[in-house]
CD-NTase-associated protein 15 domain-containing protein (Tardibacter chloracetimidivorans), 204 residues
Amino acid sequence: MWSLLGKKAQVSIILVAGLLSAWSIDAVYALALHKEAGLLKTLSLAVTIVGTILVAVAEAGWRWLWRQVPLLGRKAFPDLNGKWDGTLRSTWINPETGQPIDPIPTRITVRQRLFSTSVTLKTGESESHSTRCILERLPEIGRFRIWYSYNNDPIAQVRHRSSPHEGVAYLEFDPDASPDALVGRYYTARKTTGDIEVTRGTRD
């Protein structure tokens, strides 16, 4: 959810948190030496303690809150945690046959936290792990996207024809049209692309 905030908001929050933390350290140091910490530093220490507790509670309990208040999934971002099963359809053409390859059975695992998101994609021949994820709201069309970059690591038996590579992809969620489906597209450093279609299996 952190990535939904604008850069200015993120920077402002980091600066304020850093300033409060510095004052809080000064307050702890003063109290340890049995000195007067001052009202501002004492308040900073209290705000830091309360803020840390609230962040920990929010990190642990946001999914419960999302289940109790479904509107949050539409106004902020939906809970997409879990395993999603389906297929990849590559645009790659086999030079020996001149035909595209068959759809590839695929499992995608989304691990979504309050401050981070990761995507793992696994097929019979390789596994991809996200290196960075960005959440995007598309309120004008009522959809949500996870954009991510990834590293792909094929199994040893196929590396003679499928080398490790990097790529970018997105997964799009439309709660009105398909509340249990993700569709998307990927682009690889090998100059190939493909479509992703998966449906929700289990929620983690």
User: Anything to note?
Assistant: The radius of gyration is 22 Å. Strands lie at 82-90, 93-94, 99-100, 104-112, 117-122, 126-138, 143-154, 165-173, 181-188, 193-202.
